[in-house]
Amino acid sequence: MAKILIGFMGAGKSTIARLLDENYVDMDAILTERIGMTISEYFSKEGEDSFRALESELLEELLETDKVVSSGGGIVKNERNRELLSQNQETIYLEADFDTLYKRISNDKENKRPLFITNSRSDFKAIFEERKVWYEDSCTRKIDVTSKLPEEIVKEIQGI
Ligand code: S3P
């Protein structure tokens, strides 16, 4: 069974996945390789729906493995993905408040998320609010990561 980390952009999915298993799989990294451009470029060239279709296809592939997976924050937009994630044995939701996430995303100069670039703060917050219930519906376990160090989060996941 795959161990899948879900949560909004900036929640630390990749950082935690790497600490859990150095051979973790980062969905955005695989998709970036498959599309041959950045996700932002792909969004403007082919549209978000096209990206979502590739993302769903990849999720189905990864659910068949026993990997630790860092998913993209928008994976829960698709109803079928939510269903698959909730049926998976270990789907862990890394939950944090909006202000914390917004600060982290703003400070991330290496990863310019398309939805962050193209939305005002209030529209971005509306996306966050809409998705919260979807993360809840999709997860089998939830961890509040707002004011915790990565090492503490990993210990909590591992039950240490
Ligand atoms: C997205 C989150 C990104 C990436 C894409 C869309 C989203 O992943 O998949 O930019 O819709 O929330 P991260 O959550 O890893 O930033």
Read across the widest sheet, the strand sequence of neighbours is 2-3-1-4-5
Order of helices and strands: EHEHHHEHEHHHEH
Kindly report how far apart the N and C termini lie. Answer: 21 Å
Total beta strand runs: 5
Helix content: 55-70%
Bound molecules: shikimate-3-phosphate
**How would you classify the quaternary structure?**
single chain
Shape: globular
Q: What can be said about the biggest beta sheet?
A: 5 strands, parallel
Q: Which secondary-structure class do the elements indicate?
A: alpha/beta
**Approximate strand percentage:** 5-15%
Rg over CA atoms: 15 Å
Mean pLDDT: 97
Please give a structural write-up.
The chain is α/β, with parallel strands linked by helices and 160 residues long. The protein has helices spanning 13-20, 27-35, 39-46, 48-63, 79-87, 98-107, 114-118, 121-138, 150-158; strands spanning 3-6, 25-26, 68-70, 90-95, 141-144. It has a five-stranded parallel β-sheet with strand order 2-3-1-4-5, with helices on both faces. The longest helix is centred in the C-terminal third of the chain and has 18 residues, at 121-138. Shikimate-3-phosphate (S3P) is lined by residues 9, 13, 28, 39, 72-74, 113-115.
